[in-house]
Design a protein that fits this description.
Length: 257
């Protein structure tokens, strides 16, 4: 039920259900460490979406501590939790530790790792490098991943591919390659369309990418037309204190400056 609420975007309700489950698991005489670790990872994804970075870090750290002794460092569940912890570090501004973590994870991920998970790790790494002022390194980290085969069921990785293309576009804007950035945003739109619908958050992130591109091209009015609805959408999804809303506000401020 918690997973269903999370997919619906009801992260607070999902969190309540997960806390109940975790309390029951912890109360057992011999708790199932794997189940506890997986549920902590799930809870972390929900609290991160609510902007609670401290709780997400605590949950993921505990999840790794419980999962790794049972499964080993290279198990996909351990790598996924550690990758997500890297994203938390990025959003906390701990860029170098995040880069070190995410580089190590990307080297340990194998062909058996789901494409969407590998793309997420590379996207988090590219974001950290871009925020560190190294957009060329971000492109180097992400470009090979965008060429990976999509597999027999492309739809399974469509959202991950779309999000990776948006991050790629932002790095291209930073190095001044606006035509390539425009193509990457179009590729993101095409990838999202494979799912039939585009989620509200992903649609807003595409608008923000287009706003940045318009701003880099000197089109302030076009940038504002993209940034305003994107900011409003993210504000409605997350509330004013969320880091994604803060980044959208920053883009909007740059347009209006």
């Amino acid at each position: 039920e918690a997973n269903l609420e999370s997919r619906r975007g009801n992260y607070r309700r999902a969190g309540e259900l997960r806390r109940e489950t975790l309390a029951m698991l912890r109360a057992q005489r011999r708790p199932d460490q794997l189940l506890l670790g997986q549920e902590l990872t799930n809870q972390a994804t929900d609290v991160l979406r609510l902007g609670d970075l401290a709780s997400a870090r605590a949950d993921l750290t505990e999840a790794i501590e419980r999962l790794q002794p049972q499964l080993g460092a290279d198990d996909p569940r351990v790598l996924a939790a550690s990758s997500y912890l890297g994203l938390v570090e990025v959003n906390l501004g701990e860029l170098q530790p995040a880069i070190d973590r995410l580089r190590a994870i990307s080297q340990r991920e194998s062909e058996a790792t789901a494409l969407r998970q590998k793309l997420a790790t590379r996207r988090y790494l590219a974001r950290a490098l871009r925020w560190q002022g190294k957009p060329s390194d971000a492109l180097d980290a992400l470009a090979p991943a965008l060429a990976w085969p999509v597999g027999e069921i492309p739809r399974q990785s469509a959202t991950a591919r779309g999000r990776a293309q948006i991050e790629y576009a932002l790095a291209l804007i930073d190095v001044g390659d606006r035509p390539a950035a425009a193509r990457a945003i179009d590729a993101a739109s095409q990838a999202f369309a494979e799912n039939g619908t585009v989620g509200a958050e992903d649609a807003a992130q595409m608008q923000l990418a287009r706003a940045r591109l318009a701003l880099a091209s000197g089109d302030a009015q076009g940038a504002l037309q993209q940034a305003e609805p994107a900011h409003a959408a993210l504000l409605g999804i997350y509330g004013p204190a969320h880091f994604e809303v803060g980044e959208a506000q920053g883009v909007r401020a740059m347009v209006q400056w």
